Structure formats: C-alpha cells, structure tokens
Amino acid sequence: SLTTLKIPKHNGRNYGRSWPVSEEEIFYMLRNRLREIVGASTNWKDHQQALAERTSLSQYLAQSQDELPAKTMKDSAVEAHLPLGSQPTLREKYLNYHNSVRFGRILEDLDSLAVLICYSHTWNKELKRSPLSIVTALVDKIDMRKNIIYPDCDIKFTGHVTWVGKTSIEAKMHVSQYHDGAYTDVLDATFVMVARDPENERAAFINPLKLESPEEKAIFQQGEINKTRRVELSTASLLKVAPAAEERTLIHNLFLNTLDTRTVSFRSRILSTNSVWMEDAKMKGLEICHPQERNIFNRIFGGFLMRKAYELGWANACAFAGCRPTLVAVDDIIFRKPVEIGSLLLLSSQVCYTEGMHIQVRVHTEVLDPLTRQHSTTNVFHFTFCVEKDIPAVVPQSYGESMLYLDGKSMHACSLEYS
Question: Do residue 291 and residue 384 come from a single domain?
Fold first, then answer.
C-alpha cells in the first residue's frame, strides 16, 4: 500500500490529485517538496550555498499586497494520508509504549503541513522557486477530539488557509483516523505563519484571500476574531500589566493559607493537605541541536521543538500526577526566536496550575551560547492535560511563581472554553 498526498499543481506537475509516493514516510516527502519550492539543498554541505543564492529572489517580492493576485481557499487545500494501518515500519516511528500514537510526531507533521499550505496559497507558477520565507509564528490552538490515536489505523490530514493579513496567514488543519470502517475526528489545529523576505530578515507581502461563499466568509470572520483575541491576550499579559484586583486577592489568600499559625511569621510557611510547592513540580531537559533537525531555512525545525517540549511537558504531568495524563489542548505556542544549528537548547517544564483532574503545564525553552554563556528565550508552550483522579494543588511561593500560577489559571480557562 502506497502513501498518497494531495497538493496543488507545482512546477508543471499535477499535485491536485492523489498520487503514489514510495518514500518511507509521507512527511519526509512533504519536507523535500518544501525544499524544492524554496530552493534549499538536502545536502548539509550545500545547504549554506543554496540559501545564499536565495538573496537574488528579492527582486520578485511584491512592493504592496495590491500587486498580488487573490487566491481562494481551494488554492491552498492540502490532503495527506499517513498509512499506519498498512506500513509496519512507519508505525514503529509513531508508536509509544502505551500502544498509542506519539503525539509529538503529530505536532511535527502539523507544522510541516501548515508551511506547505501557506506556500500553496502564495505560489507563483511563473517562478521556479518561491521568494518568500514562510515560518511559524505561533500555534493558536490545538483541540483534541478523542483521547486515543490508534497506532495501526490510517490517519488523514486536511487543511487550507482560512485568514490572511498583509504579511501573516492563518492555516487550519483537521486530523481524522480511519477506524471501524469510517473516519472519526482526532483534532483541529490553528497555526499562524508569517511571510518574510528570502533572507528571513523582514516582512513580505502575501496574496489576499478571495472569499467565494457565505461559509468561507464565516471562516474568514472567525480568523478576524482569533486575531483580535490574540491581541487582547497579548496586551493583558502579566509581563506587561499588573494583576487585576481579584487576581491579587487570590494570590494573597494563597499566601495566607500557607502561613504557620503557630509562629505567624512570613519566613515560616507550610503546605495544606494535598498540595505541592510549585518549585517541586518542575522537570528540565537539554537538546544539542544537530543538522539532522534543521528546516528548509537552516534553522531547527519548529515541529522538532514542539515535539520535545510536548514530551517533556507530558513527562512532567505524568510524574506530578502519578498516572498517565491525556492531552486536552495546546495553547499559544509562541515562536519568539529561531534556534540555530549547534545551539544548546534548554527546556524547563513547570506545572503551574491544577484544578480537579486537570493539569496546566508551561514549557519554556531557551538557547545557551556556550562561548558567551548568554541565554535567549526561544519558545513558550502551554499544554492542558487531564487524568482520571483528583490531583494535588500547586502552590506558588514567590511573586514570579504567582504570576505563572495566574497565567496557568487563565490558560486553563481558555482551554476549556474553546475545546
């Protein structure tokens, strides 16, 4: 049984239909297709030279969005099939020891698919290579529709562009799985990508979106709502504004509940029953960033970063709860800075909020330059997990931990609201 992919026509070859691929894995082929669109080399030795040659493509960039033809949602529609049911060797890569699918691998595939969707929207058939550098800005939302992804059943990915600004694009993707004779929903994902020049240094204009039906207008309007919500959340960040009155009261009450009534001293603090200090709910990791994990722009692949962050967050939730957690939602994965090849990537996971059977985990990643010893934040990830029993409450001690607690509480509320 062969893997199939549906993508729009490119370089004279019709990819608008399903066609057979003999590669070991569909998304290996997909990433090679992205390299062809951009003009990047699969050979590490030639990679730097290939990217340097892209600078000449700047002449093909539009000076305004009005110069670019409008594209429809159908122009960017992509469908990919992952044949886990018929390819045992492929299945091994996606299998976890719980006899389910490794969700981190699905995150990698979603990131690759989102990039391809956006290149399909911006593709100019008159050019052999795209002058745009399209990179992931953030993962707005991933909502899980089922708890178990079977390791021996085919998976289908579909998606298309749903909203565009002048230089940014929203792509929505849907994942389903063939089981018991029919496809059932697995998850819905919303990624936001940005277009930049060939050297990935400044913003570049993208094609406007042509809406062809009332349904498409409704989809686009939801994209506008998503953008407004992101702006509001950004301006309300606790890194920019002080906590609201009710949030300050909450933190004050948490503090008072940890005071030792026998000493009534700020230095003497005790935990209530079934509680854990936030300091004791951490887990850390380190990755050396090798060329194998590079993307088409010679940086570390965003999907790889998401997979590593998810796996650390899952392990943290598992150790904290003492049982296997189930992912409920992924929120606001922000890509602040690219990760260069050769970097030391430090990952820090923190259980920052719990409520009932839900665990909110924040994973912070940063790169360390071993020569200058400087740290730079690259990503922040938020994961919501659920277990089948009530779990301890995490309690902050410092002001910084209190801000993480409030942020986690807000993320938890958003996860349940939009899931």
Answer: yes
